[in-house]
Amino acid sequence: MSEEPRRQRDDCSEADRPIRQMLLVEDNLVDIMVTQEVLRESRTPIRLNVVRDGCEAMEFLRREGKYTTAPRPHLILLDLNLPKKDGRELLAEIKKDSHLRSIPVIVVATSLSGNDVVNSYNLHANCLIAKPLELDQYTAMLRSIEDFWFCVVRLPSD
Predict the structure, then answer these.
(1) Sheet holding 105-109, edge to edge
(2) Global pTM?
(3) What is the CATH number of the domain that holds 140?
(4) Dihedral pair phi/psi, residue 107, rounded to 5°
(5) How far is the C-alpha of 71 from the C-alpha of 130, rounded, in Å?
(6) For residue 136, is it within any domain?
(7) pLDDT of 4 higher than 70
(8) What pLDDT sits at residue 5?
(9) What is the pLDDT of residues 112-127, one digit of tens each?
(10) Less CB within 10 Å around the terminal CB: N or C of the chain?
(11) Would 7 be classed as within a structural domain?
């Protein structure tokens, strides 16, 4: 049974796999650096784009301002507690936009109240994950996201 995830990861590393675009919406510099490092070592070709607040995320997604050539992400990792426009507002805005709503949004938050869980799913989050505090658990979480969303799930094409 333990060989199945390994086989999925190996299948993901085929040379003809497209480069996957991921948008990380996170204001914590340590979390950004760890995510960059883990995905840099990924077997799946992933290009990580990072924005630090909800307003910047919408500029990126709508290709406005300095983001006019930004790629459309295949997946968004979203922190709930952000400056300027928090993750809840951003999630609602993404899912109301007919051009963006098909992009899967994974909400990742350090502390999740019962309201956060219900509200995130009511706003059409594709999943909600409690952000681990330990580095090895955080790395494992990112690997699980990579395996599931880029190897198992079929995502919409550009």
Answers:
(1) 46-51, 20-25, 75-78, 105-109, 127-130
(2) 0.85
(3) 3.40.50.2300
(4) -85, 125
(5) 27
(6) yes
(7) no
(8) 45
(9) 777 878 888 888 999 9
(10) N
(11) no
